[in-house]
Queue: 4 jobs
Job 1
Amino acid sequence: MNAPLPPASPNPLAPIAHDMLEVDGVIAHRLTSSVPLVAQISQYIIAAGGKRLRPALLLLICGALGYKGSERFNLAAVVEFIHTATLLHDDVVDESTLRRGRATANESFGNPASVLVGDFLYSRAFQMMVSAGSMRIMEILSDATNVIAEGEVLQLMNMHDASLDEEGYLRVIRSKTAKLFEASARLGAVLAGAPPATETACATYGQALGTAFQIIDDVLDYDGVAAEMGKNLGDDLREGKSTLPLIAAMQRGTLEQSTLIRQAIEQGSTEHLEDIVAIVRNTGALDVARKAAAAEAQRAIDAISNLPINQHTASLLQLAAQLLERRH
């Protein structure tokens, strides 16, 4: 970019506020079902809100590249449905009880209903993506969904494995979390008819942003406030997940401290949560993780350096920068 960007808005999603209302309309319309429980649970989790970053990312890329067709609303809803389906299944696998400040769907409606409604959302997403009439779009979304599923299984295999290193950790989150960010950004470029180099740049931005997002999410498990986060502190530890803050703390702590964390991961125990949080904070492990997130955020920023200069591009840059300040 040789010219200065337009002034950034305090809210990077402001330029797509109206677009998001259109997406909400598509979501509400496509959640209809003749089976009352399907609609009830779908509405329950969608109504819980959330950041809607994946559809927002697709809309921002479309805006940055000048695409104004209505298909962007349909595909933004598709990626939100896929994301919501993964949340329903995740919460069952993780036995989670709290998400976004209220009871999870599985806590309220039971595991079988949550799994089956997750299946409904996946299949509805595929019905909707067919309407785009593009094999390329089908390819991107079907590949992403498959990689996400592999990431879920990989994470399950790594549960209670205290020997997981940073490379293994990143492999999981790039499959499980960052892949849908990557697909969302790539879809925006495909809709805009962007050349291959631009499509790749947008996909790189999405992957890097998604990776930074998850690292910060894992940091907040040891540096956040439950009321702000909308989930229980220490959930990752209870589930036996070896996240970057724990990996760094084991590397930097004393033998006694590392042993305590290792045992907690292997046993899925939060009995010594306060001690472990103190170790994570005192060893500088959170700084290690935040630096890793900052590097990913910078990779995202660098990836879109040649995008057209407009308010949507400014928002994409701001989104990456603000991610590091996230508190929930």
Note: The chain has a mean pLDDT of 91.
Job 2
Amino acid sequence: MQQIRASVADEFEAVNRLIVEQLHSDVDMVENVGHYIVDAGGKRLRPLLALLCGAALGGCTERHIAFAAIIEFIHTATLLHDDVVDISTLRRGRPTANAEFGNAPSVLVGDFLYTRAFQLMVTLEDMDILRHMADTTNTIAEGEVLQLVRAGNPDTTEADYLEVITRKTAILFAAACYGAAALSGQPEQERQRLADYGLNLGIAFQMIDDVLDYEGDPATMGKNVGDDLTEGKVTLPLIHVMENGTQEERTLVREAIASKSAGRLADVVAAVQRCGSCDFTREQARRYHDQALGCLQGIPSGPAREALLAITALSIQRDH
């Protein structure tokens, strides 16, 4: 990641400074919770995409830096809310904000970050971006509700799964790229091409996340293996077992999903491995990876384009 950030290192640091500056509040709890989750780090992949797209299309401006901070605030707000809904206890190698401070502060500080993002957005004075980001955050919220409604439902299809991950994850990747292109003065066709790049990248990224939930190393990932099963999330590896496993394996997975229990996690992981379900999911992720690469054709050569290619490769070649 350090090499990928190199072409926009100064801008990336400027984003980090702006995030810290914009976390300021007269309410101590807001700053405490906000800093707790932001200081935990993470890849900052979404704001990095905004910076790299801006750099590839002529150079990053102060508006790109502000937009990248906006993207990170929205993402962080969704993490705070997700961890409360999912009753998660570990993220990025340490207790989640809700485990550390409680559910109510996490939800309310998540609201603060959402509204701070839109305050920053107004300073861009660009109605097209404001409209696009309003639609994006609304879609993310719908995706979260869809995931909640479908949790514990073993009849969830691959199409249902794709709808959820597109809405709740990939759409913000797409928005980061679209907004950067808009701020670079690109026509709608070019904006949409980069949005398609982000969307396909985001889908590939989420699919690998779902693989890692069954074969990842908790110490490396910074979160617990099997969390998806405990939350009743029906991800592609499980769907593949239910479509291709033995009757015993299908029943095992269906019952684990319906009961939202990781009590038989070891057996479920074994079934996923026997059915080649993680390999299947990786193959599907590569399809979206390849589509994302296709969207980068025509982007001017240079360090920023090379970094975008590296991020695309990283989406399917990572262990956390």
Note: The radius of gyration is 19 Å.
Job 3
Amino acid sequence: MDKVIRIGTRESQLALWQAHQVNDLLTAQGYRTELVPIKSEGDIDLVTPLYEIGVQGIFTKSLDIALLSGRIDIAVHSFKDVPTQLPQTIVTAAILERGPVKDLLVYKTNTDFLNQPDYIANIATSSVRRKAQWLRKFPHHQLHNLRGNVNTRLQKLAAENWDGAIFAAAGLERINVRPATSIELDWMLPAPAQGAVVAVCREDDEFCLKACAPFNHAHTALSTQIEREFLRTLMGGCTTPISAYAYIQNDTVFFEGEICSPDGTSFYSTSRQSAVGNAAGIGKDAAEEILAKGGAEIVAQIRNAK
């Protein structure tokens, strides 16, 4: 195989970890590869809150451009960062088997403040979804913006006078930086496709499509398809307070989804299950149920605020 597959990736340690997973899967099949680090817009501006930037695909756009211009052959993304509508002529080549999906609270000293109703804790996160869910449970807490890659955010947490910060478990565990001072937030529903890694390529690149096909994980592909369909039907975008999680057990798909107002004061949720063979459309059906319940008001509120 003389062709070298150029794999585009963001420059952070976590992004490089993800790209190396795809690289290793390709080289194990005998393909020749090369990693091409590319800086994304989301990595350049580390101050402005994501909800203020308001650009879908802020972490993927630069890689999409490199792919469409022929600078790279494959782009590797955290699937939760990918807009529900891919750019024209870009398609999914493979979705890797999913890693941890939950969110973690990394705390400074202890978690006693979680059980102290009068204590005003200071919690950091750049995620609109995490902020909304946290305020729903702890409406009196103060939330602070926290941008940057995983290591930068951990350093900022250590330097600031905050009680804790919220991270994706996958991000910390994949690069072995999860602190002992962390707990899983079982009650926090994750972002659609959280914990999944996707490789995309040009739709006419049969060579790369064939190369990636063997490591496409069917269960992860179905679960994330349902979650992203739910997101797309509601309004779409990784900077919205929409959560969804689907998993498969004994040939049955279990799904939970919700939308929360940005300040946490109102939310609508739903759950359902289906046989794997009948799972098509359940994400859309779940979203339509949420909209009918009153979720459309939250969607309108978010759109009007932008």
Note: Residues 42-55 have pLDDT under 50 and may be disordered.
Job 4
Amino acid sequence: MESSATHQRLTDRKRVAIIGAAIEEFLAAGYDATSMDRIAARANVSKRTVYNHFPSKEALFAAILHQLWDASQGGDAPAYRADKPLRTQLLNLLDRKLRLLNDESFLSLARVAIAAGIHSPERARDMVARMGEREEDLTAWVRAAAADGRIKTDDPLFAALQLQALVKAFAFWPQVTMGQVPLDGKQLKRIAEAAADMFLARYA
């Protein structure tokens, strides 16, 4: 009889296989043409196994985006520190964010998500809601800095979205929508520093 540890390893392996197969399917066929049947066939598992791990295609897509986010980040985001300079902390967070936005797999799937969202605004709202179930690192940091009185805003979410927009205008939207090449390290550093300085000039 298999031990629970062996069973867990098998379950984990199947989950990894499903996510890998789903990424390939979404990129090859687009969101609408990808079915749970095709994902199951590509992963060499039953359709029931796919549904055991992910209740819907939307949930599976959200899980992929989360996994890419986690993989690009390398561990938990640094939390707000009252004893550290704001600019240093902010640059650290922006560097993590830019690494994700520069990841080719993430950009490819973002294109799939955007194309799917254009065809179905309702689905786009669902994807955004699922992605928003986990508070963004930058938002959590701005909220904590505001609570500590070092960032002056009565709407931390709005301020955090402004900050993200400063970064994405250079390091996400041109690559996703216009096929521009990902930026190099020097360009990313410049974007992070300019965004941090503008944000702190307004809110610190």
Note: The mean pLDDT is 87.
